[in-house]
Structure formats: C-alpha cells, structure tokens
Amino acid sequence: MLHALVFGALSERLMVSSPPPPDKDCKIKVLTIDEAKYVSARNFAKAFNVRTYYRKESGKIVLFFTQKKIKITVNNSFIMFDAQVFQMTGPALLIDEDVYVPATSFLELVRQNTIPSLQYSVTTSVEPYYIKENTVVHAATVAAQPGRIRSENVNLTGIRYDEKANGVTVRIAAEGTFKDSDFSTFFKGKDWFYLTIYGAECDSLALSSVNPTNAFQMVEAIATGSSVQLGFRLNRQFKSADVHYDLRSGSILVSLFLPLNRDIKRKIEEAKTAWIIDTIVLDPGHGGKDPGTPGRWGYMHEKDIVLDVALRVGRLLKKKKNLKVVYTRKTDVFIPLWKRPEIANKSGGKLFISLHVNGLANNHTANGMEIYLLRPGRSEDAIRVAEAENAVIQMEEPEDKVKYQGYDDITNILANMVHSINMRDSELLAGILSRNFTERVKQKNRGVKQAGFYVLVDADMPKLLCELGFNSNKAEAKKLNSSKHRQKIAEAIYRSILEFKEVCDKSVTQN
Ligand SMILES: [Zn+2]
C-alpha cells in the first residue's frame, strides 16, 4: 500500500489539439507512475463533453462517445471499444476516486477506434497536482504493469500460419528479440483470441489478413505505438494458447491448441492399443557356446530343449490372427543377456517368456517345473537358480559385460518394480501358466517363485521365466528329451498365453 505517490512537484496535463475539444478549459490530468504516464479517463471524457458512467463496486467506467462506447475496468489492462477488446500496456488504476489509464496505448486506441483526428501533447502544468494522502494503490498492481517501454520498438515483418492436427501454429517474424513478459494473450468468448506484443511495431496491413488459414476468419493487426495487438477471429474453438519467442527461427511462436477431449480420446485409443497383447516374445535361454545345463545320459542340453519348446509355442501362436511372435533367437546362437529384453522392447513386445531348464550338479533327485517372477529372491533355492541363469554373463564379451554395471544393486531396481502394472500382469500369467502345467503336463509342478533375473529386468512388459524341469534328474531329462512331452509343454504355454491375452484385452476394451 502506498500513501503518496511521488510524481514530481509539477503535474502534467494532456492537451488535445485536434479535434478541438468542446470544453477548452478542461484539464486532463496526467500522472507519472514508474516512468509511465497515466491519463484520467474521466477528465478525458469531460474534455469531449462525453457522458460517463462509473460503477464503483465493479470498478468499471464507461465513456459514451457517439462513435463508440469505451469500457474500462480498474486493475485490468483490457479495454473495450463497443464489442472489440484491446489491451493497453498496463492496467487501469483507481487513484483519488478517478480511473487512470496508460496514456500512450489508451490515446492510440482512441485514435484508431473512435477519434481518427485525435492529436495531443503532454505539457507541464503550472499548478502542481498532489495525490491525497491515504490514496490506496496496491503495490502489486503497479508492479504488474507489463509495459516495457523500449527506446525503440522491434519491427514485426511477417506472419505465417501452419495448421496442425492438434491446433495452429502462428509464426511472427521479428527484427529483434522478445521476452515472455512482452506477450499477453486472452480469449474473448469462443470467437476471438488476442495477442499483445509489447515493445513492437508493424505495418498493420502487412500482418492483417482475411481467411489466412482454415482456423481463422480473419486476423487484425493494430499498432498502438508501444505495442502491437493481433486479434484472431476464430473458426474453431481452441482450448489454450502458448506464446514464446523462438530464438532459433527469430520469430514469435504462437500455438493455439484444440480442445483436450479430442486429444484425450485419441490418447486413450492409443493407450488401449498399447495394452493389447498382440506381440509375444519367446526367449529360449542360452545358445551357441553356452549350452546352459548340459545334457547327460545322451539327452539334450538346456539350450536345445528350450529352443525346441519356444519354436513349438511360436508355431501354435502363429495360427492365431492378430498375434505376432518374436524370438530372441531361432537358432543355436549365443545372445548376451542384455540383448534379449532389448529385442523384446524394440519389437513392441507385450509379453516376455524366457525358457530354461534347471540342473544341479550334486542332486539327481530334484525335479519339477518352476515359474519365476522378477522379484528379489526370497529363498536360497530361488537365489541359486537366479545366480545360475545370471552366470552366463561371465561368458560374454567385455563390451557386453559393461552393460550390467548399473545392475550391481539389482535388489534396488527390483524393489521399484514390484508394484508396477507389469508385475500384476506377470503374476496373473504365472497363475494361469502354473494351472495349465498342472492340468496339461505330466510333470511335477513346483509352483510360482520369485528371483532376480538379469534377463527379465529390462523387458518393459509382463514377463516370466520358466524352468521346464531338471535335466540333472535322469527321469525328467528323459521326459524333456521326448518331442511329444515338449509339445505338451508348448501347448500348456500356448493356452496360457491365449487365456492371458483374453483377460488383458477384455479389461482394456471395457475401460
Ligand atoms: Zn538357463
């Protein structure tokens, strides 16, 4: 709150030389606040013998010129000439029960909209004018004046329009730079969008146009001397606007955005398709120089069992329309662990299943299938399995090993993932798969477990790792060596994927 505004001992007066004002004796008060001149709206009206209507409660004053009604609102920089809105370089201020408006922009707007012959000058009066004590001016209001008075205005040289799917971009070429505070925008109803550029000037004709693009009926440029106002008559209902100075192109970039609901609708549709289970990534573990658990008694190595099962699952899935199958390997080749989830992610995979076979060097009795979720290992057994499957990193080339350096604290990474949607879906699939193993495969089912597998960490989708049995157990190794048995396993996995897809897709389309 300011009690007295200091504006010099001698007050200033606005002298109107053309047209000759009816009331020659009327003195139009001018105040200087923060180096900007303000003129009394009431005095101005009186000089032209124009009736005013002032409503204290709403802070609105109306000047009834015969040509146009001028509406001014206290603490507001917008001014209306009949139904047209313009913006002054600063808000109108209430001082000593009178409404003061930024002189230059107000007078220029009056000249352009109401009195074309208006000519004026500001002279120093002999009678000093003091603001009464206790005049209340909110400091914030004064500070909020956007008007940066430049020594020289920046010339705006051209305007270009680009229609985009989500709105329109308008580029205004400028011969100098601007700051964000030089711009001010507002929508007036559905029909108009106004942009005021402070410290700018232009050839109004060059920037104005009719039907410059489908989005606008017309664009009107008005130079007020200290600013340029662009009025866009809208053909579309935009929801918001953004203006900034683009250093790269040396132009003012105005973006008008179409309503959100259209965007949201499109995004929801995109999100829905993103969640549809349409790409299945099958990851047969090991391969090439890495046999996995070695085959004994003349039976198959882990790498060969899992590749065969993966190819069988893939063949079944390929019969289904709208389902794409991606393999991390289709032949007996070595693929580093880090590359497997990368293949899955790059192919837009929606489900990742890594296939393995367990093996124990000193235990020939352990048997059964296991399904693993990616979580910090809870049991020693699970940790052992994870360590065994992660051990392949030692076989990888030095440049591959580098990729795991960030995973030293794997438990940390895993902790963050536990609550993810992918985890919930992985659990869902694990449940379905475990049931199908029990129902369809004549083999012990050790159930769903959790452990930290490198191969699962980076796959950005629901994911599981299956240990299809122990080939360190002679009976199970024999089973896994049978193509008929492997087909049963493949069918159980295939059925589970279809069940999982049905549940997930249904929840997506229902939401
Ligand atoms: Zn393995």
SSE inventory with pairings:
Layout: E1 12-18, E2 28-33, E3 36-40, H1 41-47, E4 52-55, E5 60-64, E6 69-73, E7 78-81, E8 84-87, E9 93-95, E10 98-102, H2 103-113, E11 119-124, H3 139-143, E12 154-164, E13 167-174, E14 183-188, E15 192-198, E16 200-202, H4 204-207, E17 209-213, E18 216-223, E19 227-234, E20 240-246, E21 251-257, H5 260-275, E22 279-284, H6 302-318, E23 324-327, H7 339-346, E24 351-358, E25 369-374, H8 380-390, H9 398-401, H10 410-417, H11 421-440, E26 445-451, H12 454-457, E27 463-470, H13 474-480, H14 483-510
Parallel strand pairs: 12-16, 22-23, 22-24, 24-27, 25-26
Antiparallel strand pairs: 1-2, 1-11, 2-3, 3-10, 4-5, 5-6, 6-7, 7-8, 9-10, 12-13, 13-21, 14-15, 15-19, 17-18, 18-19, 20-21, 25-27
Bound molecules: zinc ion (ZN).
Task: Give your account of this protein's structure.
The chain is of the alpha+beta class and 511 residues long. The chain folds into 3 domains: 12-143, Copper amine oxidase-like, N-terminal domain (Copper Amine Oxidase, Chain A, domain 1), CATH 3.30.457.10; 154-262, Immunoglobulin-like, CATH 2.60.40.3470; 291-510, Zn-dependent exopeptidases (Aminopeptidase, 3-Layer(aba) Sandwich). The strands form 5 sheets. It has a 6-stranded antiparallel sheet with strand order 9-10-3-2-1-11. It binds zinc ion.
